[in-house]
From TrEMBL, chain A:
One of the GO BP terms on file: intracellular protein transport
Pfam family, one: Adap_comp_sub
SUPFAM superfamilies listed in its UniProt record: Second domain of Mu2 adaptin subunit (ap50) of ap2 adaptor (SSF49447), SNARE-like (SSF64356)
Coiled-coil residues: none
Location relative to the cell: Endomembrane system
Name of the protein described by the UniProt record: MHD domain-containing protein
Length: 381, 1093
């Protein structure tokens, strides 16, 4: 499966190498593909590696990996055996190799202790590899965030070309022992296509439409879902825009107004409009009635950070664009990418009805939060 | 001082640490002196010293730095001797880092590496499975040929290890050894064969990986394990799933016949109709056709389907390819949604998935058409993603959706990403050729694009128009004229060349314009690109042939220019053309054909997908992505015309071994029920059970032994048999152990075996009651009591899923629970065939058993039967820690005779004590309840049993009341089953008949029922009836007639139940009672109970 791993930085230099089978020369990086292996297998694994690094070091970058090269090496050693993934669950890994913290490194230098657990984890041996044994908390809590993203393409006139809702339930479960949770929805029929964390019992979902699972410890993605396409997608904002480049002369005009549309009575927050301007736009002279507007001259990206959307006083951005002299007028107007957030609302209407816990005796603190965000939300102009 | 200077070279934090340590007396004197001598020698010298010191922390620091060197790809091999000494270190981190080093450099330092081997050999024998596994991991990673025999031995031993984790490591080691020494292949295949039989989900993925790498062609090894792998698949870890699915895909293509043949009718056009049809309809079709799918083929499809919901994209893709390559065409659609879902993933995944969808969408438009909008391009997509989406949209285009797609394409054409815009134009061209309805629209659109500002767009348009015109040249002169007009403004060579070619090809349609274009070209000829020059020469030649009068001079001029061109291709072409159209004296042979050569009708180019030729690669493979055959790619074979023998996948049932027969022949107790349940349960049990299972089985067997003896004692008639009985029953339980083992091994792989078993138990039962020696009800109840102990055992053991176990316990009656324990036993993989022997022998002795036990009458005393069905009254989640369960003890109520006795078990599951638990308000208000006394205090984890009496007034209406604690009140309700509202009544057969005679007409309800085969014996009937209703057995003189009598608790009305057996397991069930509502409800309950096994 996976023979060797080379980490390469932006400038194309190899800064870390690890081999699981016989040692392969660095020159192999000149040509990538050698033997048959499902590409997604490797890609998925690499993403897990990156996620693990992220999890351990807070970020996954060249500097961080160089700083923690030994831990990285130890991790990689545990993650693959003979090129075949061995332990990819972060719970299992964390039991074997403790993530570095400032406190621990201080303690280690003083006591000569190490980051490597002296017990090998039992999780790897059980049928529940995602949860370690002997979890203990003084405050038992289980939080679920239902996050929905609207992917949409709106055309010039504001009509929806394409819109769909993708959702994800992120969980943060800190419960003592081996709790067995059951999460049920008021309206599970909304969910069209789902994918689960391995902990979810698929048979129960098939038969009862409830999520029954023994959760991993800590943060994890419980499920992702797609809301069936029959349901009309509510588009929370309406964009009135006109961008024009004049045939003659070296200027253009831009006028954007954003108004709330179907917000279900909630406030739209974190509204940001991003525009990738054509290369010929040299500079902008724009005034915003709300928020601030910046234009990056090198990347040609216009960012208008509006913040909260006030229905009484609609935010407007207008002004002129100055173009490179002599360049032809851009063929196409730039697309507006919109980012927004609505708290306490799942735009699809999905509702968690209850969470039950079995197998443990204490009473956990439970919470469900709903957020709607704009995913790939584009307005063509 | 000198030391610190030295350290500063190495710099950083380590220096400080080391300096600090330096002050300790042990290392300072010798170490410092040592360093002074060697200070300026090798750069790694200090590392060596650190390794040789006796400070663990120094060693660790040294190893960390060495690992950093390795990671950077620097050579640290010279430190090998110093490092290898630490291989047996106690410090785990140090040890692990040494392992890392060892694995990296052992190949280069073979002799020295051998020093470490003995350490691993010792560790291989360690009692800790994890240490054994890690030793094998490192040992097998040391690529030193000399130790091949040691590795082989270690692998063989590990493959028989009790720990599945060690066996998994062994499977990985197989591949490592194979890559080191291919001569070991045969021996390794033996190990693989053995490990393939392993039933642990942990091992399955790894061993299949080994199989794929060592002997992918030995498909015969899979046969016997095929069904097991299919069944285990869902529980295997995600990476293993990918490997197994891909192997099974290959396997299935060699073993099953094509499911596509009868799909000939499912072609693209009428395919749509089938999407709407539900699955049942599909099945019918499959059955109806001449093609019948092999059940094993179906098994694979069914068991892989849930994996489409995996979060792992590789798993989803592998299931998708499996369906694509194996499923009947109309079933492939189920993968669509999941594949589309993957498009939300990161772009690398998107790229691969889109590639696969592109290939799929060529053959099966219908699959992705409903999801067309998911392939709409966003301005933020990268170019290669955009082009793939475009490709798919083009593949999906048909008459119905083309207008939508074209509108979308219009947006894309204007894209700032010009490469993408150009690709869009090509896509429009493809749509135009594929869908004749829109050809005109597309052409007009493309012509409009000719006035586009961007030259790449224009160029691409010209090229596409050229291709389109070629396919439909009729009356295109307008477009050609338009292009001629644009000719001056177009600068892209390819576009200019294309226009010139078009002029030449259709010069007769534009007789006036073509010569003029040639005139212009003659002016600029020298400044043009090669490709334009070539086409100019072509145009000149064609015009000369068709319109020589006007163009003769121009042609000669151009040919002269071409003759002296710098490019030899053009000189060549010019010479050739000249000879062809204006032949000299000697070489005129070809010239008479000039017209036919130059103006021959040319076949139109076929505009097709770039993914057309990829479909011969297995989807999801690297070869498919690259469109090149990668090393190690395993072709999918074509379906065999005739399916190979299906029976090879049957797991053999080895013939009964003779010596077992006499032993088991004596077994008396019917373990019949066990079969049904163990059949269901073994699947689940298997995962959780570990070696501890053996303990269980012994404990439970002993307990059942006891139970046997107790029951015998109670029944006075056969007291002398007691001792022998207990012996037998323990042997019986031993049997069931072995049976459960065998269940695990055979485990539904052979459908035949369980069926056989099912047919046996009733025979055993019926004959044993003929013999009349076993009061079965008693035995079963007592054994259920005794088994409760072992039940808790099983809960403790099965680490897999405690609540699930709990549930089972609630649902099944307790007798089965003890059998569950017996199942809770994992046989070592090595002796896997053995249990099979046991099971089949068990079958034979059950037959023997049925002959030996003949009973004629039953002496069941109703009181002995106490149902253990416990119902939940209050869940501890809703009860804020207070949970309550209730059951009907079936005893006369102490408080009032008209009340039904109810026992309630109150448990405090909270972490604080509960006070003043009592019964509060009730509804209906008239409800007569005798409450329990207030419980002052219930400590955490404590539970208390209280009894209540409730007068239900002979109705099944629920009794609602409140359960109160000091702080809270909880509404609860008890709904009695109708059978609990009856008290048993004793009467003679004559009395029964007399009373029955009085309760006819309105008071009689009867029905003919079908009984489960297992329920045909007398005991089984009584057991089932008694489990439903609290009635008494009336002894009967007729074998085929069973009678039960009772009185309703509240009003004392008689309830008479009679059951007359008829042939083929049907029976007439009659109930006579004044309470006709109760009668019909009871009838329904009894009917249900008797119908189920």
């Amino acid at each position: 499966m996976i023979h060797s791993l080379f980490l390469i930085n932006h400038s194309g230099d190899i800064f870390l190498e690890k081999h699981w089978k016989s040692v392969i020369s660095r020159s192999v990086c000149d040509y990538f593909f050698e033997t048959e292996v499902p590409p997604l297998f490797v890609i998925e694994f690499l993403h897990r590696v990156a996620d693990t690094f992220q999890d351990y070091f807070g970020e996954c970058s060249e500097v961080v990996i160089k700083d923690n090269v030994v831990t990285v090496y130890e991790l990689l050693e545990e993650m693959l055996d003979n090129g075949f993934p061995l332990a990819t669950e972060s719970n299992v890994l964390k039991e074997m190799i403790k993530p570095p913290t400032i406190l621990r490194s201080v303690v280690n230098t003083l006591t000569g202790g190490s980051n490597v657990g002296d017990m090998l984890p039992v999780g790897q041996l059980s049928t529940i590899p995602w949860r370690r044994a002997g979890v203990k908390y003084t405050n038992n809590e289980a939080y679920f965030d239902v996050i929905e993203e609207i992917d949409a393409i709106l055309d010039k006139s504001g009509t929806t070309v394409f819109a769909e809702i993708q959702g994800v339930i992120e969980a943060c479960v800190r419960l003592t022992g081996m709790p067995d949770l059951t999460l049920s929805f008021m309206n599970p029929r909304l969910l069209d296509d789902v994918s689960f964390h391995p902990c979810v019992r698929f048979k129960r979902w098939e038969s009862e439409r409830v999520l029954s699972f023994i959760p991993p410890d800590g943060n994890f993605t419980l499920m992702t879902y797609h809301v069936s396409s029959q349901n009309l997608v509510a588009i929370p904002v309406y964009v009135k825009q006109s961008i024009s480049f004049f045939e003659t002369g070296t200027c253009g005009r831009l006028d954007i107004t954003i108004a709330p549309k179907q917000t279900m009575g909630k406030t739209v927050e974190g509204l940001v409009v991003t525009v990738h301007m054509p290369k010929t736009v040299l500079s902008v002279n724009l005034t915003a009635t709300q928020g601030n507007c910046t234009y990056d001259l090198t990347t040609k990206v216009l960012v208008w950070d509006i913040g909260k959307l006030n229905p009484q006083k609609l935010p407007n951005l207008r002004g002129s664009l100055s173009m490179q002299a002599g360049a032809p007028k851009p063929e196409e107007n730039p697309t507006l990418n919109i980012d927004l957030k609505i708290q306490q609302l799942a735009i699809s209407g999905l509702k968690v009805s209850r969470l039950d816990m079995y197998g443990e005796k204490y009473k956990p603190f439970k919470g469900v939060k709903y957020v709607t965000k704009a995913g790939k939300f584009q307005v063509r102009t | 001082m000198s030391t610190s200077v030295l350290y500063n070279d190495q710099g950083g934090a380590e220096a400080a640490v080391e300096a600090g340590l330096e002050s300790t007396p042990t290392s300072s004197s010798t170490g410092a002196a040592f360093r002074l001598v060697h200070a300026d020698f090798k750069k790694n010298e200090d590392l060596k010293e650190m390794l040789e010191s006796n400070k663990e922390s120094l060693k660790l620091d040294a190893m960390k730095r060495i690992v950093e060197l390795i990671a950077k790809g620097k050579n640290a091999s010279e430190l090998f001797p110093a490092v290898v000494k630490n291989v047996a270190s106690k410090n785990i981190e140090l040890k692990k880092l040494v392992y890392v080093y060892l694995v990296r450099y052992a190949e280069e330092q073979q002799d020295l590496a051998l020093l470490s081997i003995s350490t691993f050999q010792r560790a291989l024998k360690d009692p800790n499975q994890l240490i054994r596994a890690s030793a094998l991991r490192v040992l097998s990673s040391i690529r030193v040929p000399i130790i091949v025999p040691i590795m082989m031995l270690a692998i063989k031993e590990a493959s028989a290890d009790l720990s599945p984790y060690v066996r998994k490591t062994a499977a990985h080691a197989i591949q490592k050894l194979y890559s080191l020494d291919q001569d070991q292949k045969e021996q390794l295949i033996e190990v693989i064969e053995k490990l393939l039989k392993d039933k642990s989900t942990l091992v399955a993925g790894s061993v299949v990986m080994a199989f794929e790498e060592v002997c992918p062609d030995r498909i015969d090894l899979i046969h016997k394990n095929y069904r097991k792998l299919c069944n285990l698949l869902v529980d295997v870890e995600e990476w293993g799933q990918v490997v197994i699915i891909s192997m099974l895909t290959r396997y299935a293509r060699t073993q099953f016949t094509s499911p596509w043949k009868e799909d000939a009718m499912f072609d693209e056009t009428n395919e749509k109709a089938f999407y709407d049809s539900d699955s049942e309809e599909k099945k019918d079709q499959v059955k109806a056709g001449p093609y019948v799918m092999d059940p094993d083929h179906r098994l694979l499809l069914r068991n892989t389907k849930p994996l489409l919901q995996s979060r792992n994209t590789a798993v989803v893709m592998s299931v998708a390819q499996l369906y694509w390559h194996l499923a009947p065409k109309h079933e492939v659609n189920i993968v669509t949604k999941s594949l589309v879902r993957l498009l939300r993933s990161n772009r690398e995944v998107q790229y691969i998935v889109l590639q696969n969808i592109a290939t799929m969408s060529i053959q099966r438009k219908g699959m992705f058409e409903p999801f067309m909008k998911s392939f709409y391009v966003r301005s933020t997509d990268s170019t290669h993603i955009k082009t793939l989406k475009l490709e798919i949209l083009t593949n999906l285009a048909n008459e119905a959706n083309i207008s939508i797609i074209l509108r979308e394409f219009q947006t894309y054409v204007k894209s700032q990403d010009k490469a993408f815009a150009a690709a869009t134009i090509q896509a429009i061209g493809r749509c135009a050729t594929n869908i004749s309805e829109v050809t005109d629209t597309c052409l007009n659109g493309l012509v409009l694009l000719l006035s586009n500002r961007d030259e790449t767009v224009v160029a691409e348009s010209v090229v596409v128009i050229k291709k389109l015109l070629q396919t439909q040249p009729s009356q295109r002169s307008e477009i050609i004229k338009h292009m001629a007009k644009l000719f001056d403004s177009i600068t892209v060579p390819m576009a200019r060349a294309s226009i010139l070619w078009l002029m030449g090809e259709y010069c007769e349609r534009v007789p006036k314009i073509a010569p003029d274009v040639l005139r212009k070209m003659a002016k600029t000829f020298t400044a043009e690109e090669e490709i334009v020059k070539l086409q100019t020469v072509n145009l000149a030649a064609k015009l000369y042939l068709t319109n020589s009068k006007q163009t003769k001079l121009l042609t000669q001029y151009i040919l002269n220019l071409g003759k002296y061109d710098q490019n030899y291709d053009i000189r060549d072409r010019t010479r050739f053309i000249r000879q062809l159209i204006v032949p000299s004296e000697q070489g005129g042979a070809l010239s008479k054909y000039a017209r036919r050569i130059l103006l021959a009708p040319k076949p139109a180019p076929v505009l097709e997908s770039a993914f057309k030729d990829r479909d011969h690669y297995q989807l999801g493979s690297l070869s498919h992505s690259l469109n090149i055959k990668a090393i190690g790619y395993q072709e999918l074979s074509d379906w065999p015309a005739v399916a190979p023998d299906q029976s090879v996948r049957n797991v053999e049932v080895i013939e009964p071994v003779k010596e077992w027969v006499p032993l088991v022949g004596k077994v008396k107790k019917s373990k019949s029920d066990s079969k049904f349940y163990s059949d269901d349960e073994d699947d689940k049990e298997e995962e959780g059970s570990d070696s501890s299972g053996s303990e269980d089985s012994s404990s439970s067997s002993s307990s059942s032994g006891e139970s046997g003896s107790e029951s015998e004692e109670e029944s006075s008639e056969e007291s002398e048999k007691t001792s022998s009985d207990s012996g037998r029953s323990s042997s019986a339980s031993e049997e069931s152990t072995s049976e459960s083992k065998s269940e695990q091994t055979t485990k539904k792989k052979t459908k035949k075996v369980p069926q056989e078993k099912k047919s046996k138990p009733p025979a055993a039962d019926s004959s044993s009651d003929e013999n009349g020696n076993a009061p079965v009800a008693q035995a079963s109840s007592s054994s259920s009591e005794s088994s409760s102990g072992s039940e808790s055992d099983s809960e403790g053991d099965s680490d897999s899923d405690p609540p699930r176990v709990q549930k089972k316990v609630e649902v099944k009656s307790k007798k089965e629970v003890s059998l569950l324990d017996l199942c809770d036993f994992t046989p070592a993989p090595t002796n896997a065939p053995k249990p099979v022997v046991l099971s089949s022998s068990l079958l034979s002795d059950l037959q023997g058993l049925s002959l030996s036990n003949v009973s004629s009458a039953i002496q069941v005393t109703t009181s002995s039967f106490s149902p253990v069905k416990t119902h939940e009254l209050l869940h501890h989640m809703t009860g804020k820690g207070l949970s309550a369960k209730y059951h009907f003890p079936r005893q006369p109520c102490l408080y009032q005779p008209s009340m039904v006795a109810v026992q309630i078990i109150l448990t405090n599951s909270s972490d604080h004590s509960l006070e003043e638990i009592h019964v509060g308000g009730r509804s209906p208000a008239s409800l007569n309840i005798h409450c329990f006394n207030t419980i002052e205090r219930l400590e955490p984890e404590a539970s208390v049993t209280v009894s209540m009496g409730i007068d239900f007034s002979d109705s099944t209406q629920a009794a609602n009341f409140q359960l109160c604690t000091k702080e809270d009140q909880f509404n609860v309700s008890i709904q009695p089953a109708v059978g609990e509202l009856v008290m048993p009544s004793t009467m003679t057969e004559q009395d029964f008949c007399k009373e029955q005679g009085k309760l006819l007409g309105m008071n009689e309800t009867s029905a003919t029922i079908t009984m489960a085969t297992a329920n045909c014996s007398s005991q089984a009937i009584s057991k089932q009836v008694l489990s439903v209703a609290n009635v008494g057995v009336v002894s009967s003189t007729q074998n085929n007639l069973h009678r039960f009598a009772g009185r309703t608790v509240s009003s004392g009305a008689l309830v008479l139940v009679s059951l007359q057996l008829k042939e083929s397991s049907t029976a007439l069930l009659t109930i006579n009672t004044e309470k006709s509502v109760m009668g019909s409800m009871l009838l329904r309950d009894l009917k249900q109970a008797l119908a189920q096994a």
